[in-house]
Amino acid sequence: MDKKTRDIFITSFLAILFGLICSGIMILFLGKNPISTFALLFSSMFRDGYTIGEIFVKATPLIFTSLAFAFTFKANLFNIGAQGQFYIGSLVAASISLLIPHAIAIPIAIIMAFILSGIWGGLIGFCKARFKANEFLISMMSTYVALNLMNYLLRTVLLESKGEYPQTDSLSKNTWLFKIVPHTRLHVGFILAIVVAILIWLLLYRTTLGFRIRAVGQNQEAARMSGVNPELIFVFAFFISGGLAGLAGVTEVNGVQHMLLQGFNPSIGSIGIGIAILANANPIGIIFASILFGALQVGGTIMGQISGVPSSIIDLMEGFVMVFVIISYFIRNKWEINREKKLLTEGVK
Amino acid sequence: MEKPFFELKDISKYFAKVIANKDVSFSVNRGEVLALLGENGAGKSTCMKILYGLYRADKGEIFKDGVPIIIKSPKDAMRYKVSMIQQHFSLVSAHTVTENIILGNVKGKINWEEESNRIQHLADKYGFSVDAKKKIKDLTVGEQQKVEILKALYLDANLLIMDEPTAVLTPQEIDNLMNFVKDYSKQGNAVIFITHKLKEVMSVANRIIVMRNGMVYGNVNKEDTDEIRLSKLMIENSIEELEKPKVDELKKEVCVSLKNICVKEDQEIPLLNNISFDIHKGEIFGVAGVSGNGQQELCMALCGAQKINSGSIYLNNKDISNLSIKDRIGLGMAYVPSDRHRYGLVMSMSLAENILLKTSYSKQWSKNGLIDKKKLKDTTNGILKDFRVKASGPFAIAKELSGGNQQKVIVGREVENCGDFIIFDQPTRGLDLGAINNVHSAILSEKEKGKAILLVSTELSEIFTLCDRVAVFYKGEIQGIYNTSDLNSEKIGLLMAGYKNEGESING
Question: Using CB atoms, which residue from B16, B324, B347 is nearest to A337?
Fold first, then answer.
């Protein structure tokens, strides 16, 4: 193992440890014993197969939304609207699955959700390219448009047959994403997420198109002088980004909820941003970071149910871990530079 | 003996992968002009940035009047009356001269009238023709530099560090600056003058420190040396003699042709007015002129980044006036831009990726839809070797290289991708002699291959040694096209200043 990889393991471990210590202090303020609370947290995460499966179920949509943020981030663009694109994807997936109650609905839903939420995202890129609009604001505000569009549809054409709650009827079992591990909720969407993450990595780092996206992100003017049209890249990057967030809608609707509910999963967009930053926008790193956050969510929910510590302590813990992971990134850099300096000094002598 | 004013002792500074300074020791006395001479990347600026508190040394001490001092930030440096004028000015262009100078140095309610009078007085005292109430953006580069100097004088600096102060100035302004430096040092102040131009060193310095590879290689008084001896100290390998360009008959075939090109932005004066010329195959066509007279726009119009309002451009008899940058690259037009940081390289990417940048649309790099990494690596290695680029390998990050080596990478890439026509826009600006030589021989070898070459340069010696014909630009117009052999520097100087023929002024 080279020194760089060693550094990553050491610092990531320490970051998580410090995150736990800090949130432990917060638990002390609640008058609970942090050690036993954490013991409960970890034991509850792994208490049975179902719960372990749950970790990956929670990680699946997070992989997609953090990929969505990471992809535009590579072009030096900020897509804050993954939440809205996720809702568009959910709407498309639910509508198609209700219209076509057969297994064929699954691939159609995946493709259409990608394309339509891609267009929804691509519009942000278009506004940026055409009107020099600030993509940060537009993408953020587009979430509210998507949310209200969903609410409207859930109260009108998509409203359940009973007409009581703003939600759709249950989807036909044919359109559910099939389970890959029996006796859990873990569905094939997780595999899809991993495959997509690898494809995104290939696109960014092994194709000339991905190279151009990164070049625009690092030096737009040099890219333009080399024949690249940055405006087209804006639209394309936002299209892919929106599509990725839309896929999270398919896996949540067809894989977990099996219906569309009003305002469900309200924070997977923002957690996705955190995960992407934590993983330094690396698609492969995102897979692992998402699993970590999935685990924290699962453990936190159970802990809240049985120990009396509010499960929101988990949000706090995620926050602390994130802060320390970001700090560790700079520490690693510093170590690397010091090593180079030492080599040089020795070389000179 | 009197203690030196400022003394650096055994200063060492390492950046990741690079030794910037190694055991650098020298001193500067009151009333002295010290020149810090060396090639780009020799460690001159780094060493001065340490003295000014912008960097911290990894090792070594600084003394003032024999007393050790610690300088952690420019604020500390200013307390010891040290001031540095950076190569790139740090002025707020929308603010006035007064506002810029008092920035950070005033508290509470500002008495504008008094401050601006004080600054005006200071400017007049040193014979600077600067209006304290004017906005920075309305000043020329030379005047802006004076504002930077005034900033230092306003703080009563006794040691003035200037980083390549003449790079942006006209000959007239350089003379003014030199006079100021002499005047200022006579009053018991010290000046450290960072430069790589031997002529300036000999004209202004009392003593010269020569740096090379981050170390001090010479500490000589002006009286004891001359330009030749200094250049030998400065450069490791002796410079190769440039092969004189062959004065063979121009091939008759026209490669590039410009017909009545006009470029206007808004309703102002045209940036380019009615530009027409042809470049033949195997010809180096020079564009001379004081920078900012339309050369940049000409290059941008040729490569497709600047829309032309009228006229047409032909490459090998094909009208390319409306083609995109991408299509022009596809036709084999290569361009070495003058601003390599902005237009030439992606600094945070590897050299290999920068080689790929210009031809990312070409099929040659693709294998099964993915980038052919091996081919890219081999090509990059080839360029690094051919152009003697000092880098750790094809995956070194561009910003880790010195300016000269970065430029070699760009020239290497453009030569590699070049079809029939290549534009060099100020290809040796800010480079050291070794790199200049490298670039010049690349230009000549392209000529030998029969390519059409457009060379924009503000260095007359470059124009005279390389070009077959030269067009002199003045205010976006061509003053005339001459065979280089028919011109001398006096004639071309008059043309550059706007006189079409000797004694005949065109603009009053």
Answer: B16
Residue B349 forms contact with A (CB below 8 Å): yes
Least CB-CB distance to A345: which of B14, B327, B366?
B14
Asked if A208 and B347 come within 8 Å (Cβ–Cβ), the reply is no
Q: Please say whether the beta carbons of B151 and B78 come within 8 A.
A: no
Residue whose C-alpha is closest to residue A71's, from A237, A261, A194, A211: A237
Cβ–Cβ below 8 Å for A340 and B370: no
User: Any CB–CB contact under 8 A between B388 and chain A?
Assistant: no
Of B376, B380, B375, B384, the residue nearest B408 (C-alpha):
B384
Of A344, A345, A348, which to mutate for an interface test with B (greatest number of B Cβ within 10 Å)?
A: A344
For A275, list phi and psi in degrees, rounded to 5.
-65, -40
Largest CA distance in chain A: 83
Half-sphere exposure of B129 (CA within 13 A, CB side): 5
Is pLDDT of B113 > 90?
Answer: no
Nearest CB to A222 within list B324, B343, B371: B343
Regarding an ipTM greater than 0.90, the answer is no
Chain B residues closer than 8 Å to A211 by CB? 353, 356, 360, 371
pLDDT along chain A (349 residues), means of 10: 76 86 89 86 85 95 97 94 97 96 95 97 96 94 96 93 90 92 93 97 95 95 94 97 97 95 89 85 93 88 80 81 81 81 65
The closest of A13, A46, A20 to A34, measured between CA atoms, is A20
Annotated domain spans of chain B: 6-234, 254-505
Length reported for chain A: 349
Chain A residue with minimum CA distance to B370: A207
3-state DSSP call for residue A71? helix
Tokens of A82: 């993954």
The architecture in CATH of the region B6-234 reads: 3-Layer(aba) Sandwich (3.40)
Residue B305: half-sphere exposure toward Cβ, Cα within 13 Å: 20
Helix (H) or strand (E) holding B332: none
Instruction: For residue A301, give Cα distances in angstroms to A307, A319, B163, B202, B322.
Output: 10, 16, 61, 77, 62
Helices A49-74 and A82-99: crossing angle in degrees, nearest 10, is: 120
Q: Chain A partners of B305 at a C-beta cutoff of 8 Å?
A: 224-225
> Which residue is associated with the tokens 């530009």?
B275
The CATH topology of domain B254-505 is: Rossmann fold (3.40.50)
- What tens digit of pLDDT does each residue of A76-98 get? 999 999 999 999 999 999 999 99
Write the DSSP symbol of residue B242: P
Cβ separation B343–A207 shorter than 8 A: no
The residue whose two tokens read 């040659």 is B364
Please give the DSSP secondary-structure letter assigned to residue B389.
Answer: -
- pLDDT band for B37, please (50, 70, 90 cuts): confident
